[in-house]
C-alpha cells in the first residue's frame, strides 16, 4: 500500500498547517478557557473548502478523498482538538450522512450551504439511555399525512446549540433493537427543535456540545433519509468513515502534545543540562514518536482503503482504537515531561491531554472498538 503523498496532497497539508498556525493556535487557549465556539472561524474554513472535504464538487464540496481528509484533520487537531472535533463532526457525520442517503432534491438544497460553512451540521444518534447501545433509541417519528412528527431527546450532540441542522435517528416502528430506526434531516428552524443544557466539558471545550430536544417537530416526508427502518444501518456505515476522522484528529492532538514536550525538553534545564539530554526523557520521547508513527500508518491504511472503495469496518476501528489511546498516552507523557508546569495552563500540554480523552469515547468507545475488531476478525476466520 503506497502512502507517498502527491504534490497536491502536500500543498493541501501545508495550506492547512499555515492556516491553523495563524488563525487557530493564537486563540486556542482562550477558546478553551471560555468554551467559545469560533463561528467566525468556520466561515473561513468553509471558504477554504474544509467543511465539505469529502463531498463532490457538484454539491459545493471540495471533492477530495479520505487521505486528504486525514491530512487536514491532523493539522487542525495539532492546533486545537476542539476545532478539529467540530470539523470532523460536521464533515463526517451530518454532511456525509446527508450525501450518502439523502434524496437528490435534499442534497441539492442543503449540501452547498453545509459545504460552504453557511450552515453548521450536527448528528443526533446518542440518547440519555442509548449511548453505546444505539439500538436503545427512544426518540420516535410518527407519520402524519405527508409529514413526520418527531419527539424525543438526544444528548452529547456536537453543534446542538450553534448548529443549523442535524441528521437525527428515530424509531418509526414498534420493532425492538436495531430494527425500526430511521434517519431524518432536521433543520433547526423547524418548530419544536430546542437545544438543551450546554455541557461543561473536561476537554474539547470550544466545540459546542449539548442535548437536543424534539417536541412535536414536523418535517416533510422527503426529509426521511433513505428507506424507512434503515437508520441504524446507515449510522453504522457513516461511522466507518467517522472513525477514520477521529483517528486523524487523535494524530493531530498527539502530535501537538509531542511537539510541546520536545520544545520544553530542549529548553528546560535541570542539574545543569536540558531535559532532552537525560536518557529517561529520551526513552519517553522515542516511545511517543514511535507510537504516533504507528498510529499514523494504521490511519492512513484505513483512509487509502476507504478511497479505494473497500469496506473499512475493521481498519477504521483499529485506527480509531489505537490512535485515540496513543493520543491519551502521549498527552500524559507530555504533561509528565513538563513536570509541575505541565499541570498548569501556562503550557498547552495539559490541554492536549484533556482533549485526547474524548477520542477514546466519541463515535464508539474503545470497548466498542474492541468488540467490532473481534467480531470482524472472527468473521474473517470463518471465511477462510
Instruction: Note the overall shape.
Output: globular
Count of individual helical segments: 11
Low-pLDDT segments, ≥5 res:
none
Question: Gap between N and C termini, in Å?
Answer: 23 Å
Proportion of residues in helical segments: 40-55%
The helix-strand sequence is HHHHHHEEEEEEEEHEEHHHH
Structural class: alpha+beta
Overall tally of structural domains: 3
Q: Examine the coordinates and then state which fold CATH places here, giving the name of the CATH topology of the largest domain.
A: Butyryl-CoA Dehydrogenase, subunit A, domain 3
> Superfamily at the CATH H level of the largest domain?
Butyryl-CoA Dehydrogenase, subunit A, domain 3
How many β-strand stretches? 10
The CATH architecture of the largest domain can be named as: Up-down Bundle
For the largest beta sheet, what order do the strands appear in spatially? Answer: 1-4-5-8
Short characterization:
With 384 residues, this protein is α+β, with helices and mostly antiparallel strands. Helices cover 52% and strands 15% of the residues.
